[in-house]
Design a protein that fits this description.
The complex is a heterodimer of chains A (about 500) and B (about 450).
Chain A: E1 15-19, H1 26-33, E2 44-49, E3 58-63, H2 68-73, E4 76-79, H3 91-95, E5 102-103, E6 108-109, H4 111-125, H5 140-153, E7 158-162, H6 170-185, E8 189-194, H7 197-203, E9 206-211, E10 214-219, H8 225-233, E11 251-261, E12 267-277, E13 281-285, H9 292-299, E14 305-312, E15 315-316, H10 322-327, E16 330-333, H11 337-341, H12 348-352, E17 363-364, E18 367-368, H13 370-383, H14 400-412, E19 418-422, H15 430-445, E20 449-454, H16 457-463, E21 466-471, E22 474-479, H17 485-492, H18 498-503
Helix pairs in contact in A: 4-5, 14-15
Chain B: H1 32-37, H2 42-50, H3 55-77, H4 79-84, H5 92-114, H6 118-125, H7 131-160, H8 168-185, H9 190-219, H10 223-243, H11 271-275, H12 287-304, H13 306-316, H14 318-323, H15 328-353, H16 367-377, H17 382-402, H18 409-423, H19 425-432
Helix pairs in contact in B: 3-5, 3-18, 5-17, 7-12, 7-15, 7-16, 7-17, 8-9, 8-10, 8-15, 8-16, 9-10, 9-15, 12-13, 12-17, 13-15, 16-17, 17-18
Classes of the chains: A alpha/beta (about 500), B mainly alpha (about 450).
Chain lengths: ~500, ~450
């Protein structure tokens, strides 16, 4: 049961945060509100102003939505985690999609009124967007604004935002929070779905926590982060990473003057140099899209390099093949779990040996050893606390956090010299995050060098012994993790004044 | 209409993605017994199974739906039966009985020609018919099935690696060439000649099949395009090879282009002869054994070998496979080469198993294309392909008997209908109001479309 007798009340002009781990049932609940799923039991009551008497009492109506259309008619708007926009259309075209009006009798699309409508909403709520811009050319944060405008134009009273900050940079998150406040002040109600405690505390008027499909409590934003986390997970959680000071030793990864081109031929990594020593965690901080993905892929020989050298444990590996790099003792947690990390339709057992499948003891002379593979799976599932009924279930059947644990189990079950962890806890709940962080630190303590690449500054600061700020394909500064967040934020935006430089090293 | 579903029986909590809660973790198994007490009986489980659009039931329903639509077409296409419908409202029994007779005759003929003819069975029991006549339908089914199974495996193996091998036809043609060249070109004792001829077919098909794999690996050219085009190359090459001095049958009386026949020592021995049954009419030969052995080999390869693991991994997610250090280009080449070898083997069983044991323009028939349908029907699984190949072999064999009442096209049409339904489980589900199974509807498709 994804949702079990949930009661949720959202007042007019309120930002109501729905807090819960991945798989707690937040999205199921919202999909029912939005008419994508029909509830088995219970009712949805929506109060709207009476048309005849707009200033009077709200009129309650009971709804049973059969489709998103019904929900839209009832004044609900939803911004999905994955945007529902047509990339090759302009903003104005996207906004009127499904409600196209034509000019008089000509039957031509009335773009002018669409533009005007977009401008009006933009101005009223400070959601600045060029109505004639093509959606595919806009940054993710602006695309999200388009989604919000889309909802506002259809006169929505209750706006549902499903994990809206997952794809945004810290600056964009602040802008979004401002927009949300403005909408609230205008009398709109907002349901804000998230598992990020900081944001929830910063913006919500009221917080409902759900766990395993049930409401476990309602609280106010004055509750502390650890209180919220405990409610969400059902036990006390450590939010900071506990670790001893690092004792860096010999270099295990030496990158000098590395240049990598992306798909479009531009230099995504541009003359980058970086060293990681054994026994230390180096965190790469940076706004997404500054070459972090390409850096990780180049180290793993998954992206072709144009120039520069990569030495792993002293050996030149710039021209090595991926399997040779894995053999050399490099573990890799890829950024895109379901694309690069797992074969979703393979069983958990098969995924656990994905990069060891043709080596003893899992295979001899080209023949798989089923017993050994099962033993490994049982062992890993136990040690890494992967929540599943059987090692023979597919990876797709696991929740995001457990999928990530499978990857972590696969990579951490052999002696590593170097670990590349790209977005190691993206889309992972607090409990799993705590676990993965502690394993990464344990890996460091056993002598591996670790490179953590994350767009979550909190994660980088919590894990790293040394922070390298990446901007436009280069490492523009190396600072201590104790550096104030604002200062690192400025560096992430590309400003390298002398005064900031002084803070480094 | 989505009506509220009746409250489902409580599932154990662990099926849902679970939040960490260590205090309950060690007790997880304890939650299950309570659920087991309320486990539904066999009857309701069976009912649920047959009303769910799972793979087995969709395949079965596709077959039945095709038969039903086929029946309608049989009625409509028969002028005599159609005539009885003109006075349907005065004497409906005429129309109904004429329809029933036409449909049941057709399907009975299909069955009699493919599996067993009950008239012959009665005669055999009375001692009036030979065992040869009795086994003839089965023998024909197996004869047709052998190359179909091999070609189906060729397409199915490529599917497993995420590749759509439309080039099976060309690979089959190359297989016939390879087998025939060794068959009449070398003169060896049978124990060497036959294996060598089969191997020749497999290698010729394998090399030809590897071409799209190599092109995809090196340049990213899509295997569908390249392998379709290579079918024409193979056909034209066959035409040229047959007219070649070394290959051409020297007999000036032959009216059409045909190669020299393969030596007796290279031919696939007939099963009847091997089993000591004296029935010269039974054509079924060792080819069917070769086909089943190949299916067993492919099944083993996919399930137990590292190569099969790599093929399946690349087929399901090439990105993750690459990240895990597998060579994706290499896998494409190996898979297409292996697929080509299986198709080549199909070609070899055609030349070495079916008279006139020589190359002609039509030697490969449509076996390679039918292989695509067989693979789809068999869900690209080796034993599924064997079953599908046997079914298609039976349809083809039965068509010859059914032809007395209906055109051969009817069988082709039935095959096509079955495949349409198989390829569109959503259609079957909608027509029969089936439930969606837990894992979603299954379709066999290659990646990269």
């Amino acid at each position: 049961m994804a949702n079990d007798h949930i009661d949720l009340t959202v007042e007019p002009g309120e930002i109501h945060a729905l807090l819960g781990e991945n798989g707690a049932g937040k999205s199921t609940l919202m999909n029912m509100l939005y008419g994508l799923i029909t509830p088995d039991e219970g009712e949805i009551v929506i109060g709207r102003p009476d048309a005849a008497d707009p200033d009077g009492e709200l009129v309650d109506t009971v709804h049973r939505f059969q489709s998103p259309g019904d929900a839209l008619d009832a004044g609900l708007g939803m911004v999905h985690q994955h945007f529902m926009l047509v990339p090759v259309f302009t903003v104005a075209e996207n906004v009127i999609l499904g409600r196209e009006t034509s000019k008089g009798r000509t039957g031509l699309l009335d773009r002018d009124s669409a533009r005007a409508a977009v401008r009006e909403v933009s101005e009223r709520y400070g959601l600045w967007v060029d109505p004639d811009a093509l959606v595919e050319e806009l940054p993710v944060g602006v695309q999200q604004r388009v989604e919000i405008i889309k909802a506002l134009i259809s006169d929505c009273e209750l706006l549902i935002l499903d994990e809206p900050t997952a794809v945004l940079t810290p600056q964009e998150i602040n802008e979004l929070l401002d927009i949300m406040r403005q909408l609230r002040d205008d009398g709109k109600s907002i349901v804000f779905i998230s598992h990020k405690l900081k944001e929830v505390k910063a913006i919500a008027d009221r917080i409902t926590v759900i766990r395993r499909g049930k409401v476990v409590g309602e609280t106010s934003p004055t509750a502390s982060e650890s209180e919220l986390a405990a409610m969400m997970v059902g036990r006390d959680v450590r939010l900071t990473v506990e670790k001893e000071p690092a004792s860096p030793d010999t270099p295990v990864l030496e990158i000098s003057d590395l240049t990598v081109a992306d798909d479009r031929g531009t230099h995504a990594v541009d003359g980058l140099s970086l060293t990681v020593r054994s026994g230390e965690i180096v965190g790469v901080a940076g706004v997404q899209g500054n070459g972090q993905t390409e850096l990780a892929e180049a180290i793993m020989a998954l992206a072709p390099t144009i120039g520069g050298t990569i030495r792993i444990a002293g050996d030149d590996m710039a021209h090595a093949k991926t399997h040779e790099i894995i053999e050399a003792g490099v573990g890799y947690i890829p950024e895109d779990r379901s694309l690069d990390g797992l074969v979703r339709d393979f069983t958990i057992a098969e995924n656990l040996i994905l990069n060891r499948y043709n080596r003893p003891p899992y295979a001899r002379r080209g023949v798989l050893n089923a017993a050994e593979i099962q033993r490994r799976a049982a062992d890993n599932i136990e040690t890494f606390d992967v929540r599943t009924q059987s090692a023979d279930h597919t990876a797709a059947s696991l929740s995001g956090g457990n999928q990530q644990k499978v990857i972590v189990a696969r990579e951490f079950s052999r002696p590593l010299k170097l670990l590349i962890a790209a977005q190691p806890t993206r889309g992972v709940d607090v409990g799993a995050m705590e676990f993965i962080h502690s394993r990464i630190v344990a890996e460091r303590d056993s002598g591996a060098g670790v490179l953590v690449i994350s767009s979550e500054l909190d994660e980088v600061l919590a894990l790293a012994d040394r922070v390298a700020v990446m901007y436009d394909g280069k490492i523009i500064a190396e600072v201590s993790p104790d550096t104030p967040r604002d200062e690192i934020g400025l560096l992430m935006a590309g400003s390298t004044g002398d005064d900031e430089e002084a803070a480094g090293d | 209409m989505t009506e509220p579903k009746p409250a489902e029986k409580p599932e154990p909590d662990d099926t849902a993605p679970v939040t960490p809660a260590p205090e309950t973790a060690p007790e997880r198994p304890a939650e299950e017994p309570a659920d087991q007490e309320r486990r539904p009986g066999f009857g309701s489980l069976f009912l649920r199974y047959v009303t769910t659009a799972n793979t087995v039931m969709v395949t079965l329903y596709s077959f039945l739906l095709a038969m039903v639509i086929g029946a309608v077409l049989i009625i409509v296409s028969d002028p005599a039966v159609r005539g009885t419908f003109t006075y349907f409202f005065s004497r409906p029994t005429d129309a109904l009985s004429a329809s029933w007779t036409a449909v049941s005759d057709a399907y009975a003929g299909l069955f009699a020609g493919a599996i067993v003819n009950f008239t012959t069975l009665a005669e055999f029991q009375a001692g009036e018919a030979t065992i040869g006549r009795l086994l003839s339908p089965i023998s024909e089914t197996l004869t047709y099935a052998a190359p179909l199974i091999l070609a189906g495996l060729a397409v199915g193996l490529a599917f497993q690696a995420g590749l759509f091998n439309i080039g099976a036809q060309g690979q089959v043609i190359m297989g016939t060439v390879g087998a025939a060249l060794i068959g009449f070109g070398l003169h060896l004792p049978a124990y060497l000649h036959l294996p060598l001829a089969l191997l020749g077919g497999a290698i010729a098909g394998g090399l030809f099949g590897a071409i799209p794999g190599v092109l995809k690996a090196w340049s990213g050219a899509h295997e569908v395009i390249t392998s379709i085009m290579l079918n024409y190359v193979a056909l034209s090459a066959l035409g040229w090879i047959i007219t070649n001095e070394f290959v051409k049958d020297p007999d000036p009386n032959k009216q059409y282009a045909i190669s020299k026949p393969a030596d007796e020592s290279s031919l696939l021995p007939r099963l009847a002869g091997m089993l000591g049954i004296d029935a010269p009419g039974l054509r079924a030969n060792l080819g069917i054994i070769v086909a089943i052995a190949a299916a067993a080999l492919v099944a083993w390869l996919l399930a137990k070998s590292t190569l099969g693991f790599r093929m399946r991994a690349v087929g399901l997610n090439a990105h993750a496979s690459r990240t895990a250090g597998m060579s994706v280009p290499n896998t494409y080449i190996t898979s297409m080469g292996g697929a080509g070898a299986l198709a080549g083997l199909a070609g070899a069983t055609l030349v070495l198993g079916i008279s006139p044991h020589a190359l002609t323009h039509g030697v490969a028939g449509e076996v390679g294309f039918d292989g695509i349908t067989v693979a789809l029907l068999g869900r690209a699984k080796p034993w599924g392909v064997v079953a599908a190949g046997l079914l298609f072999g039976a349809l083809r064999a039965g068509a010859n008997t059914m032809q007395s009442t209906l055109p051969l096209d009817m069988v082709t049409l039935l095959q096509a209908l079955i495949v349409i339904f198989i390829a569109a489980p959503a259609l079957v589900k909608a027509m029969l109001h089936l439930k969606v199974p837990a894992g979603g509807l299954a379709t066999t498709t290659a990646k990269g479309w």
